[in-house]
C-alpha cells in the first residue's frame, strides 16, 4: 500500500525550497539516526529532462551545508541519487512527479499488473492512458485508478515509448 507522507515529512519541508530553487523535485527523503550520526538518503528528479550526476552534486553541496547547520551535534552522511528506470513508488506524491511517464500498477480490481502513461493525478487517484495488461493486450485508452486499488506501483520504462530516462 502506498503512503501519503512525503509532503508532511519535516526534512522534506526543510529541503524542498532549496531543491526547487535548482529546478529539481524531491521524490523521496529518509533519515536514519544511529549512535550520534545522521544518514540522509535523498532521491531527486529533474522536470522534463533526464536527471544528471551534476544535478545530484549540486543538491548534495546545497543540502549538506543546510543539514550540517541544523544538526550541528551530529555526524552527517548524505546520499543523493536519481529515481532510476524502474523505481518502486512508495508515496502517492510520486505520481504527480512522474506525470507523462509510463508506470506499472498492480490493480486489486483488475487483479493484474497494468501499464499506462500517467496523464492526470488527483487526491483520489491517477488516470492512465494507453493502458495495457500483463500480456500487452490493450485494456483501455484511458483508465481512472483510485489509490485504494493500487497495491504496488513502479516506473515501467519501455524503449518504444521514448520515455524519459531519469
Structural notes for this entry:
The chain is of the alpha+beta class. It folds into two domains: about 5-80, 2-Layer Sandwich (GMP Synthetase, Chain A, domain 3); about 95-160, SH3 type barrels (Roll). It has three helices and eight strands. It has helices spanning about 10-20, 55-70, 95, and strands at about 25-35, 35-45, 75-80, 100-105, 110-120, 125-130, 140-145, 150-155. The strands form two sheets. The chain has a five-stranded antiparallel beta sheet with strand order 7-6-5-4-8, with no helix packed on it. The mean pLDDT is about 90.
Strand content: 35-45%
Task: Tell me the Rg in angstroms.
Answer: 17 Å
Number of helices: 3
State the share of residues found in helices, binned by percent: 10-25%
Mean pLDDT: 91
How far apart the termini lie comes to 24 Å
Low-confidence stretches: none
- Into how many domains do the coordinates divide? 2
| CATH topology (fold) name of the largest domain | GMP Synthetase, Chain A, domain 3
Q: Spatial order of the strands in the main sheet?
A: 7-6-5-4-8
H/E order of the elements?
HEEHEHEEEEE
The CATH superfamily of the largest domain is known as RimP-like superfamily, N-terminal
Looking at this protein, list some descriptive labels.
alpha+beta, GMP Synthetase, Chain A, domain 3, elongated, five-stranded antiparallel β-sheet, cytoplasm, 2 domains, 166 residues, three-stranded mixed β-sheet, 3 helices, Ribosome_maturation_RimP, SH3 type barrels
Amino acid at each position: 500500500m502506498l503512503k501519503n507522507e512525503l509532503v508532511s515529512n519535516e526534512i522534506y519541508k526543510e529541503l524542498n525550497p532549496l531543491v526547487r530553487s535548482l529546478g529539481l523535485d524531491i521524490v523521496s527523503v529518509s533519515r536514519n539516526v544511529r549512535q550520534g550520526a545522521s544518514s540522509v538518503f535523498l532521491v531527486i528528479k529533474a522536470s522534463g529532462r533526464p536527471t544528471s550526476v551534476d544535478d545530484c552534486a549540486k543538491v548534495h553541496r546545497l543540502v549538506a551545508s543546510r543539514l550540517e547547520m541544523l544538526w550541528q551535534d551530529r555526524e552527517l552522511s548524505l546520499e543523493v541519487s536519481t529515481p532510476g528506470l524502474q523505481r518502486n513508488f512508495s508515496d502517492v506524491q510520486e505520481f504527480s512527479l512522474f506525470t507523462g511517464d509510463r508506470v506499472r500498477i498492480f490493480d486489486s480490481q483488475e487483479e493484474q499488473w497494468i501499464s499506462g502513461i500517467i496523464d492526470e493525478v488527483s487526491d483520489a487517484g491517477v488516470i492512465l492512458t494507453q493502458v495495457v495488461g500483463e500480456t500487452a493486450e490493450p485494456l483501455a485508452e484511458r483508465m481512472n485508478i483510485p489509490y485504494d486499488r493500487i497495491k504496488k506501483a513502479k516506473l515501467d520504462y519501455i524503449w518504444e515509448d521514448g520515455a524519459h530516462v531519469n
